[in-house]
Design a protein that fits this description.
17% of the residues lie in helices and 39% in strands. By secondary structure, it is an alpha+beta fold. It has one domain. Strands 4-3-2-1-5 form a five-stranded antiparallel beta sheet, with helices on one face. The termini are far apart.
Length: 66
């Protein structure tokens, strides 16, 4: 899978806040930090774990970046 900073990802499991399954990627490196779109909490996890838990990627369109 290819993903980049600010992409929206849908995880396999819902966040405990029960508001959203969608997260925004806010940091990338050996670890990836994602932010819940429902409650704004963030989680840092190793890249390998992230890749196992992600269901699909919703890329940021060019128009949303401008």
């Amino acid at each position: 899978m290819e993903y980049k900073l600010n992409d929206i990802v849908e995880m396999k499991k819902e966040h405990p806040c029960h508001l959203s399954k969608q997260w925004r990627i806010i940091r990338m490196g050996a670890d990836i930090r994602i932010k819940c779109l429902g409650c704004d909490s963030s989680v840092l996890m190793p890249r390998r774990e992230f890749e196992k838990k992600v269901k699909k990627i919703i890329p940021v369109s060019e128009s949303e970046e401008s």
